[in-house]
Amino acid sequence: MASPTCRGGHSCSAKGLTAGITAEAFPADVADAAQLTGALDAAIARFGRIDVLEFSPHAGLAMTAPKEVTVDNLRAQIDGLLYGAVTAVRTVLPGMLQAGAGTLLFTTGGGAINPYPMLATANIAQAGLRNWAVNLHNTLAAEGIYAANVAINLMIGSQAPEGVPHRSPDEIALDYWALHTSRDQAEHLIDA
After folding, report:
1. DSSP 79-135
2. Which of 10, 28, 138, 146 could form a disulfide with 35 if both were Cys (CB 3.0 to 4.6 A apart)?
3. φ and ψ at 24, to 5 degrees?
4. DSSP SS3 for 189
5. Mean pLDDT by 10 residues, the chain (192 residues)
6. Structure pTM?
7. How far apart are CA 43 and CA 27, in angstroms?
8. Contact at 8 Å (CB) between 141 and 96?
C-alpha cells in the first residue's frame, strides 16, 4: 500500500492527514547560515510565521578527549550546534516577538550538563547552547516567548542493547509537547 502524501510530495501518516496536518520539508545545512536562513525564510513565507522552533542538529560525535580539543576539531560542533541555533533563532524570533508568542526548544546531550570526557568537543558546544537557551528562557518570557533546553542522556530508540538506557522517539516527543504546553521549565533532562 502506498503511503499518503502531504503537501510538497512528502510522506506523512494517514493519522496526520485525518488530523488536518500539513507537512513540508525545507532542508538546509545548519552549519551554513545562508542555507539555514533561506530554509527558515521559505517556511515562514509558506506558513506565515514559525510558532515553534525545535532545534536538534546532529553535528556528529567525534571522540575527542579534553586534552585533544583544538580550534579546528571544535569548529564543526560550534558551527552546527551553537551558531546554527543562533542563526535559526535570529530568523524566527522577529515573527514571534511581533505575535507576542512562540516556543524555542533546543536539544542537547546529557554531556551539556555533566560532561563525558570522550565527547569533549560536543560537550563544549552543547554547554554553550544550554547556557544560551536558559538565558533566552529568563529574558523572553515577559514577551510571550518560551525557551527551554532538553538534554537527552540516553539512547533514542524502541530497543537498545541489554543494559543501555533508552526511550522511544514517541515517548520523547511527549516530553517536548509537555514542555511546549506547560511553558514553565528552563531545562528538562531525559534520563534513565
Report:
1. IIIIIHHHHHHHHHHHHHHHHT-EEEEEEEEGGGTS--TTBHHHHHHHHHHHHHHHH
2. 28
3. -140, 155
4. strand
5. 36 54 89 96 94 87 92 94 96 97 96 94 96 98 97 92 93 96 96 88
6. 0.86
7. 10
8. no
Spell out the long-range contacts of 45-50 with Cβ–Cβ below 8 A and sequence spacing 24 or more: 49/92, 49/95, 49/96, 49/98, 49/99, 50/92, 50/95, 50/96, 50/102
Residues forming a β-bridge with 130: none
β-pairing, 187-190 vs 145-152, is parallel
**At how many degrees (to 10) do helices 33-47 and 84-99 cross?**
30
Helix (H) or strand (E) holding 36: helix 33-47
Distance between alpha carbon 187 and the CA centroid of its chain, in Å? 13
Cα(11)–Cα(67) distance, rounded to whole angstroms? 45
How far apart (Å, rounded) are the C-alpha atoms in residues 133 and 46? 27
Phi and psi at 188, nearest 5°, equal -140, 130
Say how far residue 141 (Cα) sits from the centre of its chain: 19
Instruction: Give the position of cell 534513565.
Output: 192
Q: Which grid coordinates are listed for 4?
A: 499518503
Give the cell for residue 66: 579534553
CB neighbourhood size of 168 (10 A): 12
Q: Which residues pair with 33 in a beta bridge?
A: none
